[in-house]
Amino acid sequence: MTVSVIIPTHNRADLITEAIDSVLAQTYTDYEIIVVDDGSTDQTAEALGRYGDSVLYLYQSQMGPSAARNAGIKRAKGDLIAFLDSDDMWLPEKLSAQVAAMEANPSVGLVATGYATISAGEAKKDEQVLSGAEVSEVRSCHYKNYFATSTVMVRADCLKKVGRFDESLHFAEDWDLWLRILQAYDFTYIGRVLTRYRKHLLNITQTSFHRNVKDWEKVIERHRGRSFKEWLIHQKRFSWLYLNMAVVYRDENPRQGLKYLLKSIIEHPFTHPGRYSALVRLSIACMVS
After folding, report:
1. Fewer CB atoms near the end CB (10 Å): N or C, the chain?
2. What is the percentage of the chain residues whose pLDDT exceeds 70?
3. Residues 6+ apart with CB under 8 A from 129
4. H helices of 10-59, where?
5. Residue ranges of the Glycosyltransferase 2-like domain (predicted)?
6. Residue 38: what are its φ and ψ, rounded to 5°?
7. Position 186 pLDDT exceeds 50
8. Is the whole model's pTM more than 0.85, yes or no?
9. Which residue range forms the structural domain that includes residue 246?
10. Residue 136 near residue 216, CB atoms below 8 Å
């Protein structure tokens, strides 16, 4: 089975060669590499020159990562599609493990793996491997995005059935696609670290997070079901959203953080028990502020 590796990039000339080299080091060798340059203004094209015909290089004006991934998907010739962000890396056995999982079960449409987070300026690696309970959570409700994009492989036929990335979304577009796939196909999770995810030092402001929340809400509403069980899943997803908003607001605006924490508890009181101690702390912070 041929794997099409889709790498969207924007101004990552300093890192993209590490991503490509990690693909070239794979023990599974039946693949093609498609790099979609989303309007880079640095030396990305020059950095890719050394790879010659090993990499299909596509350039487009800046339209966002979803559009870049979709452009790669349209040019892909493989039976399987694997996504790799241009600042992330794979361990050598990643593709072979995922292809084996796909071959073992034709009903599987998506295979994800564990990953290690590498923070800028830090040698320490934070490993993220789902527990059995979390895998069951994905299977039952998938109330948050458990899968980092660079860990995911999907069947090309899945995308023909459920569609590609929603280019109108600037946030949670990957979660939206995973949800659509899992509504129609089974999945396999490989509980090993096979991806290295690079975490950058970003200043996540209240304004930027609030802007992303609208996309998150759109995805939750899009996947609202009609049964009582699906209603509970819907509430749990909103509960998780409001909990994240509480975390963003808690230090600079504890009153706003308290508001969203209460909304999180009201939406689904029985998950994340740590919220109740946080409720006490935020209440005290509001009284002394």
Report:
1. C
2. 81
3. 114, 191, 192, 193
4. 16-24, 44-48
5. 4-125
6. -90, 65
7. yes
8. no
9. 206-288
10. no
Q: Kindly state whether residues 210 and 277 are assigned to the same domain.
A: yes
d(CA 83, CA 63): 18
Residues 6+ apart with CB under 8 A from 27: 92, 93, 95, 96
Instruction: Read off the amino acid at residue 141.
Output: C
Q: Looking at the structure, do residues 157 and 281 belong to the same domain, yes or no?
A: no
How far apart CA 277 and CA 275 sit, in angstroms, is: 6
Q: 3-state secondary structure string, 39-52?
A: CCCCCHHHHHHHHH
> Would you report the helix, strand and coil content of the chain in percent, each value rounded to 5?
50, 20, 30
Residue 133 carries which DSSP code?
Answer: H
The continuous run of DSSP H or E covering 111 comes out as strand 108-119
Domain count, the chain: 2
Question: What is the distance between the alpha carbons of residues 170 and 60, in angstroms, rounded to a whole number?
Answer: 17
Tell whether 228 and 186 lie within a shared domain.
Answer: no
For residues 173 and 247, membership in a common domain is answered with no
